[in-house]
Amino acid sequence: MRSYGQYCSVAKALDVIGDRWTLLIVRELLARGPSRYTDLRSGLPGIATNLLADRLREMEAAGLVEREDAPPPIATTLFRLTDRGGELEPVLSALGRWGVPLMRDYRPEDAFLGQWLRLPVRMFLADHEPDRPSVSIQVRAGDQAVVIDADGGRVSLRLGADPDADATITGPPPRVLALFSGSVALDDAEEQGLQVTGSREAVQRVLPRAGRAAGADGTASA
Length: 222
Hints:
37% of the residues lie in helices and 17% in strands. It is globular and about 55 Å long. The protein starts with 8 loop residues before the first helix and ends in a 16-residue tail after the last helix. The chain is α+β, with helices and mostly antiparallel strands. The strands form two sheets. The protein has a five-stranded mixed sheet with strand order 5-4-3-6-7, with helices on one face. The chain has a two-stranded antiparallel sheet with strand order 1-2. It has two domains: 9-104, Orthogonal Bundle (Arc Repressor Mutant, subunit A); 114-211, SCP2 sterol-binding domain (Nonspecific Lipid-transfer Protein, Chain A, 2-Layer Sandwich), CATH 3.30.1050.10.
C-alpha cells in the first residue's frame, strides 16, 4: 500500500481508500450486501479481474472487507463489509451529493447500472402518502431493471424486474435522474422521451414536488 507519509487523518484515510476502484467496491458492497466475486466484477465495468482481486486483498488487510463461506446452494465465498468498512457509507453519500452537478456531463458510452440509482433514490425521493397502500415502480434506465418501493413513509430500491409493479419508467439515465432530482416535471420528462406506463399516481407519490405532473390548474399535483 502506497502512503502519502503525512501525519494527517485525511492523508491516512486516503492511504487506505484512495486507490482507484476501492471506493467503488465499497459502493457495490453497500448496494448489494455480501457478494460473490463474480457479482462484484459485473458491477464494476472496466475493472481487470486481477486488479479486483488485488483490491479485495488490500481491503481485507485494511479491515474493510471480510470473507464468509456461504452455505449451500450458493456454496461459495462471499465478500462483505466489516463494521469499519460500513462506516464509509456517509463518505460515499457525501461524494455522491457533491458529484450530482457533474452528472450533466453524460456520454452514451459511459457504463450505467440500475443499481447505481440507489443513492439518487435515497437523496431525492420520499413517500409523500405514507397512509396509502404500498406501491412499486419499476425503472429501466439501461439493461438492468430495478424496483422502487414506497411503503409506510419509506422508499427503498431492490434489484431485478417486477412484472407486477404499479408503474414502469423507461428512458436514458439522464432523463431518469432529472425526473428523480426534481429538475424536470413528469409531464415535461415524458415530452422529452421518458416513457411511463401504469399508474402515474404511483410515480407522483415519490417524486420531489418540483417533479410532479402539473394539474389542470397548472399547480403541482399532490
